[in-house]
Amino acid sequence: RHLSEEEGFATLDEARPHLHRIHGVGLDSSELGHPPAKFERLFAECRVLGLPVVAHAGEEGPPEYIVEALDLLQSQRIDHGVRASEDPVLMARLAREQIPLTVCPFSNVRLRVFDTLAEHNLKTLLDAGLNVSINSDDPAYFGGYVAQNYIDTALALSLSRAELKRIARNSLQASFMDDAQRRPWL
């Protein structure tokens, strides 16, 4: 994300011989100063190639970055998305369209989006009907694999078993598995 669009196209060109092994393309790294709009043409090319696209948006960046990721990149999933709670119109859209938010609580705390897990808005997003899942983000840097993110977040937010089940189901629905692969897990 901190690189140029040209560098993104160069990376895509290097990946072309291996597309049969690539399951999707994502926009990640530091958001601030690097809006999704910067990569609109690159993501359009990825979609032409049949690659699902996702984007980090709304962690450090503003809610507008989530809107850009959806409208300009046509992202099928939003990684993080926690700042959506600052925009009621966006919250309603995310709930209505059930666009998955892959929330990474440890990352959000480490990057000071929230001071503590107890202050995290995951439960607020879930209660608003959003398709939220709990994930890890670069465990070596942010600490904690997905299970630890689940455990610590569940304890900090007093998530019920029903809420945890819903979060787990959301993660399966948000995956790029086909229905036949997903069915046994659900």
Could you please describe the fold and organization of this structure?
The protein is globular and about 45 Å long. The chain has 186 residues and is α/β, with parallel strands linked by helices. The protein is built from 10 helices and 5 strands; from the N terminus they run H-E-H-E-H-E-H-E-H-H-E-H-H-H-H. The mean pLDDT is 96. It has a 5-stranded parallel beta sheet with strand order 1-2-3-4-5. Helix 2 (40-48) links the parallel strand 1 (25-27) and strand 2 (53-57). The N and C termini lie far apart (34 Å).
Features:
186 residues, alpha/beta, 5-stranded parallel sheet
Could you give the topology of this structure?
Layout: H1 5-15, E1 25-27, H2 40-48, E2 53-57, H3 63-71, E3 77-80, H4 88-97, E4 101-103, H5 105-110, H6 122-127, E5 132-134, H7 139-142, H8 146-157, H9 161-174, H10 179-185
Parallel strand pairs: 1-2, 2-3, 3-4, 4-5
Helix content: 40-55%
Q: In this structure, how is the largest beta sheet organized?
A: 5 strands, parallel
Relative strand content: 5-15%
Computed over alpha carbons, the radius of gyration is 16 Å
* DSSP helical segment count: 10
What is the strand arrangement across the widest sheet?
Answer: 1-2-3-4-5
User: Mean of the pLDDT scores?
Assistant: 96
Shape: globular
Kindly report the oligomeric state of this protein: single chain
Count all strands and give the number. 5
Query: Helix/strand/pairing class, anyone?
Result: alpha/beta
Distance between the termini: 34 Å
Order of helices and strands: HEHEHEHEHHEHHHH
User: Spans of 5+ residues with little confidence (pLDDT < 50)?
Assistant: none
